[in-house]
Each structure stands twice: as structure tokens, then as C-alpha cells.
Amino acid sequence: MRDIAANASEAGKLALLWPRDAPKWRAATPRDYRLHRVFDAVAALGIEAEPALYADDVADQVREQLLRCDGVLVWVDPLSEGRDRVVLDALLRDVASNGVWVSTHPDVIVKMGVKEVLYRTKHLGWGTDTHLYRDVGAFREEFPQRLRVAGPRVLKQNRGNGGEGVWKIELAGQNGATVRVLHAPRGSVPRDMRLGDFMRLCEPYFANGCLVDQPFQVRLPDGMIRCYMGAEKVVGFGHQFIKALITPPPEGPDSEAAQPGPRIMHPAAAPEFQVLRTKMESEWTPQMMQLLDIDAGSLPIIWDADFLYGPRDATGQDTYALCEINVSSVFPFPDHAPSEIARLALARLHL
User: Rounded CA gap, 41 and 31, in Å?
Assistant: First the structure.
């Protein structure tokens, strides 16, 4: 880490980066920002913090701002509306090469913030019967038989958000030629189509590198558990009853019954999640770090692992199936997270 900037406080100067064109993030003063609790927490530790508003067309100006800081926390997730991370990642790599600490660094996102991580870590305790298709040829050759033998599957494109490129697929006829598919974005409805047509629909996803194939989890109606991590330690949990990939009720996908429930936040010490906490901290996260070659100092300051309930084991205990890791724009988060973000940021600024 380079010397603390001359115009910064003794503890260092930190930029909080988020999208310029997102109205929900704009505000007049730090007190009004969605991340105001992070501003408060870092200020309490003597860190000077400032907002940095990002868009591709102002990347040069943002670069100059970040180079005047000692670190940057990134809350930009540009994978929507046809956009990508090319310009943003180049910017973050550039400022990092000039000694600015970046969380989350693009090289770490490529390792753990893509769906391929579900395949690479499938042998860990959070894994399932996960397969990966590197190209269209492998997908055409292997997927139809797997669908016929293994039952309903979930396909996921390597990079995306908002459920785009995530599909539930099951057979809809006896001969295997027709399937029923349901896209994950809100408002989607099931439709029947020929398997070959659906597979052609998926071919553009290979532009993002691969397709990941997992079994559909029948306990999906029990909800999703979001395990929030501050580096290698759990900082809280969120439990939410989701509707993605669940067939909408007869009254339609926009009805109240079809909408996801609120995410209920819980502290790291919540009794109902202690088994999951222990596994994340003592087993799965260290194993993932070793497998992906990520050291503790490179882990994101704030990230989350999303779990669905798997089959209960022989003793009746819950098991957990990893369905996604989010590292690039984690918000909202539990009330205790800002203090952990600030503590970790202070430590990283002085490495």
C-alpha cells in the first residue's frame, strides 16, 4: 500500500464508488445516501470518506478522483441493460496498479463472483450435482440426456444479475422433445417449447464463458438464506421467501401472492443459522480460498453467499446448497455490517 495521501486524514482516505445514473443512489449529502451508515462507521474510525459517482463516459475523471484516495469500496454492478464491466474493470485494475486498495478487485470477481465457481467448488460441502458446458457443442451433446435422467434442472449463465439467464427446465412430454421452462426474472411465466428451440435460445449465453447446470432444489419454497461475509467472517444473515423459478399462482405473475417476501435480516449470532455460520467460517470459505488461490487480504470487504435448503440428512438436519456468490454490489446488508466494513477497511488501508 502506498503512503497515505497528503490531503487525507491520518487513518486514510476512502472513496465509495456507485453508479452515477442510478437515482436511488443519488442524494444531496452523505447522510441521505443509501450507504450513510458506512460513511458514519468509517468516519468513527478516523477515515475520510467521499462519494465517487461512476459511469463509463466519465471514467477518466473518476480515475483521477480515485488516485487521490488510498482505497475504494465498489458498489457498481453494470451488468444490466446491455452494459458490461470492460471499462470499469480496466479503471479498477489501473488504480490498483498505482497503489490504491480496491474492494472488490476485478481479478477476485472473476474467481469467485461468477457462476463457474459453483462448478469449481462442487466437491465442497455446499456443492450439488453441478455440471458445466464450455461451448455449444458440449451443451447439445450432454444436456438432453442429463435432463431425462436427473429430472428438473436449473441453467445459469456465467455472469449476469436480476435472474437474467437463469432458467428452470423440466420435461413436458413423454418423448423428451418438449420442455417446460421458466425464466427467473420477476413476472416470467412458464412456457412449453421444443427442447432444441430452448437450447438455441441459450446459445448467446456462451459469450459470457459457459453455462452452469444444477439440480432444481425442491425446498426452494422454504426460502433463500443469504450469508453476509466481511472477508472470511460472517457478519449476518438474510432470509427471504423468493418466487423466482416457482410457478406463479393462477391469478398471475403480478399478483401479490407471486411477489417475493421481504428479506428478514439476522445478526451473525442468530441461533438458527449457527451450523451454517460454522461451516462457512471454518470449512467452506477457507477451502474456497485455497482452491481459487485467494488470500485473506484479497477477499471482498463485503460479499455474500446465497444458499437454498438441500435435502435433510439422516439425522433430520438441514443441508445447504450454494446457488450464487455476490461480490460486486452487495446491498442491503445487516445492521452490524457497516462497523465490520469500516474495521476491515482501516486494516487494509494500513497493510
Answer: 12
Q: Closest by alpha carbon to 92, among 71, 79, 106?
A: 106
What percent of the chain stands above pLDDT 70?
A: 88
Q: What is the pLDDT of residues 107-140, one digit of tens each?
A: 999 999 999 999 999 999 999 999 999 999 999 9
Q: Both 37 and 68 in a single domain?
A: yes
333: alpha, beta or left, given left = phi > 0 and alpha = psi -120 to 50?
beta
In the numeric block, the cell 423468493 is attached to: 242
Give the alpha-carbon dihedral of 320, 224, 214, 292, to 10 degrees.
-70
Residue carrying C-alpha cell 447522510 = 31
Q: Do residues 16 and 38 lie in contact, with contact meaning Cβ atoms separated by under 8 Å?
A: yes
User: Does 252 share its domain with 141?
Assistant: no
User: Which amino acid is present at 257?
Assistant: A
Q: What is the pLDDT of residue 79?
A: 66
Range 183-190 average pLDDT: 91
Q: Where are the alpha helices (DSSP H) in the chain?
A: 36-44, 59-67, 86-97, 106-112, 116-120, 136-150, 195-202, 274-279, 285-292, 337-349
Pairing mode of beta strands 233-240, 224-230: antiparallel
Distance of CA 283 to the CA centre of its chain: 20
Closest-CA residue to 1 (of 72, 57, 65): 72
The CATH number assigned to the domain holding 81 equals 3.40.50.2300
Q: Would you state the cell numbers that stand for residue 208, as one nine-digit string? A: 459470457
- The DSSP code sequence of 106-118 is HHHHHHHSSTHHH
User: Number of folded domains in the chain?
Assistant: 3
DSSP SS3 for 238:
strand
Whether 7 is covered by a domain: the verdict is no
Q: Is the pLDDT of residue 3 over 50?
A: no
Average pLDDT over residues 205-223: 94
User: Containing H/E element for 324?
Assistant: strand 319-326
CA pair distance 248, 185, nearest whole angstrom: 12
Average pLDDT over residues 281-286: 98
Domain hosting residue 267, numbered range: 112-127+219-327
